[in-house]
């Protein structure tokens, strides 16, 4: 079933009709950039919404919001059990709004509504609850250290895992919600704050899910969304001095650029890059029946 065959929920149409800004400090805010990006429904070729095309100053505003939230310890300072409860509530809200998210995904991305319901929403929910549970299972190690001085001395060392700070997440167009939440949830579980940039062609579900995070109790500034081009918005995000970790999924060519920027700044980076899968398009009308 494609977008053309789905009876749209009123809330979906209302969301499409909004003048979308950037999600910063816990709310949608107008971008400084006046440029807009059009979101198209690939099934019908129709324009369905517009979003902000964030510039470098907009990205700076989002990263500084995430940075302020991190250093205030409004999230990192909560106990693991408190963070877990909020993240489980967040998953419940995604489930309650699952049909709306599935419809938005099918509209902007073009995949069948059944795939949106099962993968984008269903798999995302499993992942959200799994990672919420990890919040209370982050632990370090105790090490028996062998230093032969003074003779007979015994030492112990211990490790503790700490949130690194602001995470930048860069997401491709194929599974916008699911891959987006692959980045958001571990960052939040660890106590980090995040600025996430969806693909310019599929920005809607992450903008909506950020509102649900706030409704669940994630503090303002911990979960920010910037929409815009890779060349300006993406590049400004991955090279920002207050970003401590970059998590990228996308093409190999873009991944190489991001790796160079990360190496220059010694930023932690995870790259999940494009494959080489062939796409075979079959037109059954032209196939001759096998005798
Ligand atoms: P892409 O690399 O063009 O874009 C991915 C994201 O990077 C987008 O949000 C884009 O705006 C941003 N971006 C572009 N230039 C940037 C820059 N200089 N700095 C920072 N961000 C920048 O890829 P795409 O076409 O959107 O996604 C499809 C690719 O992703 C395919 O190659 C696919 O194989 C790959 N992919 C791989 C996996 C995996 O599991 N390994 C999963 C999903 C997608």
UniProtKB/TrEMBL annotation:
This is Phenylacetaldehyde dehydrogenase. It holds the Pfam family Aldedh. It is an enzyme of class 1 (oxidoreductase). The keyword Hydrolase does not apply. The lineage of its organism: Bacteria, Pseudomonadati, Pseudomonadota, Gammaproteobacteria, Enterobacterales. InterPro entries: Ald_DH/histidinol_DH, Ald_DH_CS_GLU, Ald_DH_N, Aldehyde_DH_dom. It comes from the Bacteria. Its EC number is 1.-.-.-, 1.2.1.39. The active site is at residue 272. Keywords: NAD, Oxidoreductase. GO terms for molecular function: phenylacetaldehyde dehydrogenase (NAD+) activity. Belongs to the aldehyde dehydrogenase family. Residues 32-283 form the Aldehyde dehydrogenase domain.
